[in-house]
Design a protein that fits this description.
Elements: H1 2-9, H2 12-60, H3 70-91, E1 96-100, E2 106-109, H4 116-123, H5 133-139, E3 144-149, E4 158-169, E5 176-187, H6 188-191, H7 193-239, H8 254-303, H9 310-342, E6 350-353, H10 354-367, E7 375-379, E8 386-390, H11 392-409, E9 415-422, E10 426-433, H12 465-476, E11 480-486, E12 490-502
Parallel strand pairs: 7-9
Antiparallel strand pairs: 1-2, 1-5, 3-4, 4-5, 6-8, 8-12, 9-10, 10-12, 11-12
Length: 512
């Protein structure tokens, strides 16, 4: 039970879902924080602008003592207080209008409910506002704005204060001066009701987005994890020896690419497994044949039945020697190939004249041609003075293996052609036979160990080690070997060797 919970918590699907949700939640949280601050600042600026507009509008309706007499100014104060009390307080109950003189003392107050005579007596007792920072700015002819806790309202709410100076032209000096100050204040709580509504809408949107993100992440992660789970199942089955399973290759994403790569690996491993089985069968067959012959001849000689027939006894001894040499060659080939592939076989490179190397290999192949009357024709005209950097014995081994392969696949009285092609940086040695050719589907695998093209259709003998050894030798020389073949026409193997330099002189033309 505990392991199942741990596996669930460690699953890629759950981690993807949690990641998507966390990223979405953090993103929306940061966005909400930024929007809250910017929206709050915007609403406060807008409210300050509205209050300033109201202050200007009210200020234009009041005649100051500068414009007219003190009596007219006092009358406008009275009517302004009445308008504010009867109209503005009814429509904007939280908004307070006050008029201050140029010294910061109150002239009218929209919150005062009694008649004008009572107000005149009341205002004489009230302290001035000249110490308030916004009022001090207004007294200096500037617009003052402050937001602070109010000591004049019940509960001391956070309040916006706007002090707007009303300027008039002095008829004597013809200069603008402060005639009076419109002083407005409004609790921020009222202003922030709109912000709270916006926050509520944003919260609903964020929750809806989180829910949508969870649903989308579940679908996406399920699709992704399903492919990975299937891959894990196929991999476990493959590890258990069930090599017929394959991953889905749908899609161009990483999972699809993983499926393609895994299937390619599976095909290669399945082929290698087949080659391994064939290797065991081939080695068993190649070892069984000479061992059987050696054991049979040895038993016959040990019985003493051939003591009176020395010719037969010698023939049996020749068979034992020949089969022993065959065993030795097979074992040596296996060891050489293993060392070459492991990089454990040292191959020191020295300048090697190409013409002499080819002449020796061709001469040996001619001596081994046997009764099939296979001729070997070579053209070394383009090989004169060519020198390659390599190991002479290993390059000779590669040439002998290719010539031996061509001899085994050539028909009676066939011809093997050896030609040389010199390019800018490479020397190409072509060995062409007139054999049965290699099917196109077998060409990619002919250099694999113990692979024999056309298996089961009368392919001549051999263990398939020769071409694998050729490839490893060429790789150790920073070269390569390629093959071209047409079924029913023949096959051409080409050795690609890097050119080192040119040398004067050439051995006699043993190729004829």
């Amino acid at each position: 039970m505990f392991d199942a919970i741990l596996n669930t918590l460690a699953s890629l699907r759950l981690r993807l879902i949690v990641t998507y949700v966390l990223v979405t939640a953090i993103s929306f949280g940061l966005l909400t924080l930024i929007l809250n601050r910017s929206t709050d600042a915007f609403l406060m600026r807008r409210e300050e602008s509205n209050l300033r507009g109201m202050a200007i509008a009210l200020g234009t309706t009041v005649r100051s003592a500068v414009d007219t007499s003190e009596d007219a100014f006092a009358l406008d104060q009275k009517w302004t207080q009445r308008r504010c009390h009867d109209y503005l307080n009814r429509n904007f109950p939280d908004l307070r209008f006050r008029m201050l003189d140029i010294h910061g003392r109150e002239l009218m107050d929209s919150f005062y409910p009694d008649d004008w005579a009572s107000w005149l007596a009341e205002r004489a007792q009230r302290a001035g506002h000249e110490t308030m920072p916004e009022v001090a700015l207004a007294m200096a002819g500037k617009i003052g704005a402050e937001t602070r806790f109010s000591r004049e309202r019940t509960g001391h709410p956070y309040t916006i204060y706007i002090a707007h100076p009303i300027l008039r032209t002095d008829p004597k000096t013809r200069q603008h001066r402060v005639a009076f100050i419109m002083y407005l204040d409004k609790p921020v709580d009222v202003v922030r009701q709109n912000l709270n509504e916006l926050r509520h809408q944003m919260l609903v949107g964020m929750l809806a987005s989180l829910l949508l993100t969870v649903l989308v992440s579940i679908l996406f992660s399920s699709n992704l994890s399903a492919g990975l789970r299937h891959a894990a199942q196929v991999a476990r089955a493959f590890a258990a020896g069930q090599m017929d399973g394959r991953m889905r290759e749908s899609g161009r994403d990483e999972v699809g690419q993983l499926g393609k790569s895994f299937n390619q690996m599976a095909d290669n491993l399945e082929r290698q497994e087949g080659l391994r089985r064939n290797l065991l069968a081939d080695v068993s067959h190649e070892l069984r044949t000479p061992l059987t012959a050696i054991a049979g001849c040895a038993d016959t000689l040990a019985d003493g039945t051939l003591t009176e027939d020395p010719v037969a006894a010698q023939r049996f001894l020749d068979i034992i020697v020949r089969e022993s040499e065959r065993l030795q060659r097979l074992v040596n080939d296996i060891l050489d190939l293993s060392k070459l592939q492991a990089g454990a076989l040292a191959i020191p490179l020295t300048p090697v004249p190409l013409p002499s190397l080819l002449e020796d290999a061709v001469e040996i192949a001619r001596m081994q041609a046997g009764p099939e009357e296979i001729s070997i024709a070579c053209d070394l005209a383009t090989a004169a003075d060519l020198v390659v950097m390599g190991h002479e014995d290993r390059l000779a081994q590669a040439l002998r293996n290719l010539l031996d392969n061509a001899r085994h696949h050539s028909p009676a009285r066939g011809t093997i052609r050896v030609t040389v092609e010199a390019r800018a940086e490479w020397v190409l040695v072509h060995i062409h036979d007139e054999g049965e050719g290699i099917p196109p589907e077998d060409l990619p695998w002919v250099f694999d160990r113990f692979y024999r093209a056309g298996r089961g259709v009368g392919t001549p003998g051999g263990t398939g080690l020769g071409l694998a050894i050729v490839r490893e030798i060429l790789l150790a020389h920073q070269g390569r070997v390629t093959v071209e073949s047409t079924v029913g026409v023949g096959t051409t193997f080409s050795l690609h060797l890097p050119i080192v330099q040119a040398e004067g002189g050439m051995r006699g033309d043993a190729c004829g």
